[in-house]
Amino acid sequence: MTFRLRTISRDDHLAFIRGLDSASHTQVPSWGGVKPDWRSESLGWLKDGELRGTALVLYRPVPKLKRYLAYLPEGPVIDWHDPDIGRWLYPMLAYLKSQGAFSVKMGPPVIGRRWDAAVIKEAIADPAVHRLGDLPPTSEDPRAAALTDRLRRNGWRRTGDEEGGFGAGQPRHVYQLPLEGRSLEEVQQGFNQQWRRNIKKADKSGVKVVLGGYGELPAFYELYAETAERDKFLPRPLEYFQRMWDSLTAEDPDRMRLYLAEHEGDTLAAATTLTVGRHVWYSYGASTSRKREVQPNNALQWRMIQDAHAGGASVYDFRGITDTLEESDPHIGLLRFKSGTGGGAAEYVGEWDYPLNKLLHKALDLYLSRR
């Protein structure tokens, strides 16, 4: 069976995504509006006139050349377990090359290995264990290994293996809390004692979590800028979040939400979530160093988990984590915080490159290595 690949309308693209339980928020049509430095395009795989797969492609131009890096973040949305994966990818590569792409980067949304919270807790306490990959997984999907073999045989190269979970592009390792088939009481029973204690303390202290809108983005951003300074990372500008809000909520009013944790008139923490189908992601979080004793972050996450559950989500995704388990890692506290909810870590098969022009692709690699 062969597919016909062509450009599709935003409406057809969105209709296909709406028919799925889960697809990455970076593969919905509106995500192109979040990235103004990239040109976006929707592609579709068709058979007998029926749409069988989609892709949001972002094109990044090379200065002074009419050539592009084509990026499909956490996509395309196709049958990744098809033994003949080439019938999906070859037409895509041919089309992208015809559009001036010199290199293609994609991120198959396929999870290969999982580790539950109890395994991670023991590993963090064991000085002999340094990385998630050193641990036997709680579960493993052999189809993921088969896919990576097929990609390598077809000329694809995995990138970012050295990054420890927080490199450029989309995260290889994430932390997920399953909600499918569980009551809220069962979900909370899976939290560790510290989490349950902190939720009760926040409630007793009078912390209130409220929904915000576009007008509250500056309040979120003030906390976000403070968090960036405290944790020593480069913050995105306020305009990025305003653009995200405008683009995503115009497509679906529930695609993006903003939550704020307040106490006696002070906004102490804030976070955004993104929703596609039955998958909810914790996207960006921010907090002040003031009044940490009232536990606003636990209250914030618990409200977002409750809302995800009420909306029928099958998973609440805490997004990226480090794959290192050493005490010296600056991200280990974040992993401890997320693993306190139960759930578990998951490892995707990673992002993959295909050089359509080897010379330009090599030049891009060299440029990125020197940044």
Strand-helix topology:
Elements (H helix, E strand, L loop, with lengths): L3 E4 L2 H9 L20 E9 L2 E12 L6 E5 L13 H13 L2 E6 L4 E6 H8 L14 E2 L1 H12 L3 E3 L13 E6 L5 H6 L3 H13 L2 E5 L4 H15 L6 H14 L4 E8 L2 E11 L2 E9 L8 H15 L4 E6 L11 H8 L4 E5 L2 E5 L2 H12 L2
Parallel strand pairs: 4-5, 13-14
Antiparallel strand pairs: 1-2, 2-3, 3-4, 5-16, 6-7, 6-15, 8-16, 9-14, 9-15, 10-11, 11-12, 12-13
Helix pairs in contact: 6-9
What does this structure look like?
- This protein is of the alpha+beta class and 371 residues long.
- It is 34% helix and 27% strand.
- It has helices spanning 10-18, 86-98, 117-124, 142-153, 184-189, 193-205, 217-231, 238-251, 296-310, 332-339, 358-369, and strands at residues 4-7, 39-47, 50-61, 68-72, 101-106, 111-116, 139-140, 157-159, 173-178, 208-212, 256-263, 266-276, 279-287, 315-320, 344-348, 351-355.
- The protein has a nine-stranded mixed sheet with strand order 7-6-15-9-14-13-12-11-10, with helices on both faces. Strands 1-2-3-4-5-16-8 form a seven-stranded mixed sheet, sandwiched between helices.
- Helix 6 crosses helix 9.
- It is globular and about 60 Å long.
Q: What is this structure, in a nutshell?
A:
The protein is of the alpha+beta class and 371 residues long. The protein is 34% helix and 27% strand.
